[in-house]
Amino acid sequence: MQPAVVVIALAGLIGVGAAAADEGGARFAVAVAIGAVGGLALYQAAFGFTGAWRRWTRERRGAGLRAQILLIAAAVCLSFPLITFGRDLGWPVGAWVFPFGLSSAIGAAMFGFGMQLGGGCGSGTLFTAGGGSSRMWLTLAAFVAGSVIWTGTNPEFQSGLSAGLAALGIEGRSFWSGTSLLREIGWSPALMATLAALALLAWWTMIAERRAHGELEAPRAGGHWLRGPWSREFAALALAGVVIACFLALGRPWGVTAAFPLWGAKIADGIGLPIETWRAWDDGRLDRSIFADATGVMSFGVMLGALAAAGLAGRFAPSLTLAPRDAATAIVGGLLMGYGARLAYGCNIGGLIGGVVSGSLHGWWWLLFGWIGSYAGVWARIGLGMDPPFEDRSTYGGAQIGGRP
Fold first, then answer.
1. Is 237 exposed, middle or buried (0-12, 13-18, 19+ CB in 10 A)?
2. 155 prior amide bond cis, ω within 30
3. For the chain, how are helix, strand and coil distributed in percent, rounded to 5?
4. Could you read off the pLDDT of 335-369 as tens digits, one per residue?
5. Best CA proximity match to 377, nearest among 115, 142, 120
6. Are 343 and 150 in contact (CB under 8 A)?
7. How far, CA to CA in Å, does 37 sit from each of 149, 302, 304, 328?
8. Contact 116, 51 (CB under 8 A)
9. Among 119, 125, 137, 368, which has the minimal tally of Cβ within 10 Å of its Cβ?
């Protein structure tokens, strides 16, 4: 244990919580605490999407994927009835239901590719940066920069995309309007359909893993509830609790990257860049405090919770040494994630989980194209020498699997 690190993290949480309460009231302070629990769970279980998706692609090991499925399944069991009946119970909550089409597909694929280069997803970047990774601080900085670039170039991007589609005889960038399963078929059938789809995904990963290795990987044992490490399953349930707590405290799903454009714009404005002349910032939002943004204060909580977790585990040991290739891939990956997340209505938390737990089909759309981008990113890592080449494993563990993944 590193007491000084823990004290600094707790002091930071108190300070951010007080500033958030001053700007947004008690529920913003609660959001900071919820984020801290999320950061603790993410760090103590090393719970990320990037590594789990890469490990499945390279090794056909699916324990990380199944933990993510458990997270979503546990959350929808409460989020669907809460969205449907919360208002009647005096606790109104909103859902994120967005249209989806080529623009969001491009954004999700950009994000998936970028997270493999950058080394972390939306939540992963926050908790590893908070835990002391210097590389992930660089990824986070580029992530924020990419989000700001989106605010200045999105109109031109969308106009160019529309012009390109029109030239192909296709009208509109969104192929489907926002579709809510809760609204279309009711919360109970929607819940059963969602759980069935998640169970099918989990079953598929188990079948493929057994084919590749003969058996499933043994579950990772958990340690101390505070100092860690945590099992993936315990962390998944804790994070499902964070998702539901966000619904209750803020009235909407958990998001991460929506705060990044404001963070970056504040920095740009502070160093004298004329960002206030950009159309996206002519509404006075630059005059708001960063602590007046619920998503932002919750993300601060995630980072500080991860810092506390690193101190509790005695593993806070930041290194300032960074190879040029690592720095370059962190920057490129972060820029892609920042821009892609805005196009796709969020990252793996806001876009994927936020969509699915809202009963919106755009969450599944995000999953499809985020996975495609991630798959390409895994191959890019090999080409850049970040990972070793795939083995020639027409057989693996004695079982035929049909060649490379």
1. middle
2. no
3. 70, 5, 25
4. 999 999 999 999 999 999 999 999 999 999 999 99
5. 115
6. yes
7. 31, 7, 10, 32
8. no
9. 368
